[in-house]
Amino acid sequence: MTTTAGVDSSTAAAATSATSRKSLAQNFDTFLTMLTTQLKHQDPLSPMDSTEFTNQLVQFAGVEQQINANSNLEKLISATSLNTKSQAINYIGHFIEADTSAVPLQDGAASFSVTLDAEPASVVAVIKNADGDIVANKTLQKISGRQEVTWDGKDKDGNQLDDGLYTITVSALDAEGEAIESAVTVYGKVTDVASDDTGTLIGMGKVVVNIDKILTVRDSASVQSDTDSTDSTDTADSTDSTDNTTDETTN
């Protein structure tokens, strides 16, 4: 994604309005030419009924008013769009939280948050690459509500992965094995801004979101990461086992 904006919806709408206005003017000129010709050649003893062309004049006036109203609305939309783009440029270099499950791996690290509707018996964040392959798992805290998570960008074998787009899928189950609803947001540094017919777009490296997906803006990349999440289920089970042994020894 580049910072050069393409043809957006407001530009296309303005072009449509200009075409409509031109077409109306041409039709009105044709109508006046025909009306003038008819009036010049009418029978003085049997003049034309003015009702029909009066109605046509009223219709043309109504269409013209509608086109002018649309034009004014398009100018307002264009001004609003330009203002939004100008504000969006200020995001470059800042860190944002976005409502999406696509997380950017930037400088070898990524951060995201997970919110659970209930306390789980097990919860794992599955991380996939752009091809949909699972590259890492993170066992999260068994708590309801929100927790923030960091990922060091390493795969299941400890290899550092390339920066880019990855996706987060959360698997959370209760004690009965029923799925628990979850929500994911991601953090990333804004690198560029663009626009298309869907609106203003914010780029975090390879991850692109619409501006209305931004939840928070911050100067720092730091998040309140949970300290109990691990990169593998086996490690988490080992940790739990150690904690239980400690408790038994204490008792």
Automatic annotation (TrEMBL):
Gene3D superfamilies, sorted: 2.30.30.910, 2.60.40.4070
Domain FlgD/Vpr Ig-like intervals: 106-174
Alphabetized InterPro entries for the sequence: FlgD, FlgD/Vpr_Ig-like
Pfam families for this protein: FlgD, FlgD_ig
Coiled coil ranges: none
Keywords: Bacterial flagellum biogenesis, Cell projection, Cilium, Flagellum
GO biological process, one term: bacterial-type flagellum organization
Ligase keyword on record: no
Keyword Secreted belongs to the record: no
Role summary: Required for flagellar hook formation. May act as a scaffolding protein.
Entry similarity comment: Belongs to the FlgD family.
Name assigned to this protein: Basal-body rod modification protein FlgD
Lineage: Bacteria, Pseudomonadati, Pseudomonadota, Alphaproteobacteria, Rhodospirillales
